[in-house]
């Protein structure tokens, strides 16, 4: 873990993060790694975005100088916008949403903005979160990512259960690709079928 931050192997960084401030080091040690954490998140190199960002719960980052807080929020925005715009069979949308929730706590503004979007990318991202958590949504369980904090997770669950999500998915215009089936399946899940 010594040497330039960018040269630390990703697996060594993940091992450190799992124990940071709990078994290894303190908050000052963890803050040393923040530039690497944010760079990996911004450049989509983080093995587990939610794990990387969950460490911010120990950092009291809101008390940092304005320019440092601005870097954190800009990184979160970059990661979130990329997650919404990227369609992959195994999406990282929930992972990024969970990580952002770990840092911000209150996801209401982000969810509100997402809820107003009707573009295919945002709707496909919504479908992926619904499909990844279909059982939890029907059975009242927890969302899939293990790093969820209770309050942001409750916000997301309530947001997904809001009838406006069904209406949002209903606004989807078919694109002629695999997103069409995902959005249709997610609409069925939210309709209780």
Topology:
Layout: H1 10-19, H2 27-32, H3 34-42, H4 49-54, H5 66-85, H6 93-104, H7 108-115, H8 120-132, H9 134-139, H10 150-161, H11 163-170, H12 178-190
What is the number of helices? 12
Q: Report the helical percentage.
A: 55-70%
* Shape descriptor: elongated
Uncertain spans:
none
Number of strands: 0
Distance between the termini: 50 Å
- Share of β-strand residues: under 5%
Compressed to H and E, one letter per element, the order equals: HHHHHHHHHHHH
If you compute it from the alpha carbons, what radius of gyration comes out, rounded to the nearest whole angstrom? 17 Å
Structural class call reads mainly alpha
What report would you give on this structure?
By secondary structure, the protein is mainly alpha-helical. The chain has one domain. The chain is 64% helix and 0% strand. It has 12 helices and no strands. The protein has helices spanning 10-19, 27-32, 34-42, 49-54, 66-85, 93-104, 108-115, 120-132, 134-139, 150-161, 163-170, 178-190. The mean pLDDT is 91.
């Amino acid at each position: 873990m010594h040497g330039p931050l960018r040269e630390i192997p990703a697996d060594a960084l993940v091992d450190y993060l799992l124990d940071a401030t709990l078994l290894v080091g303190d908050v000052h040690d963890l803050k040393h790694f923040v530039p690497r954490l944010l760079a990996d998140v911004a450049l989509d190199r983080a093995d587990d975005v939610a794990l990387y960002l969950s460490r911010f719960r120990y950092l009291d980052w809101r008390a940092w100088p304005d320019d440092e807080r601005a870097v954190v929020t800009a990184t979160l925005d970059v990661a979130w916008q990329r997650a919404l715009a990227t369609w992959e069979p195994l999406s990282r949308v929930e992972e990024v949403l969970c990580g952002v929730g770990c840092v911000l706590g209150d996801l209401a503004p982000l969810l509100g903005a997402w809820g107003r979007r009707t573009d295919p990318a945002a709707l496909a991202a919504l479908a992926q979160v619904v499909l990844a958590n279909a059982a939890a949504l029907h059975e009242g369980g927890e969302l899939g990512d293990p790093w969820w904090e209770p309050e942001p997770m409750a916000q997301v669950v309530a947001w997904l259960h809001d009838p406006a999500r069904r209406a949002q998915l209903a606004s989807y215009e078919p694109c002629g690709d695999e997103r069409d089936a995902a959005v249709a399946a997610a609409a069925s899940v939210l309709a209780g079928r």
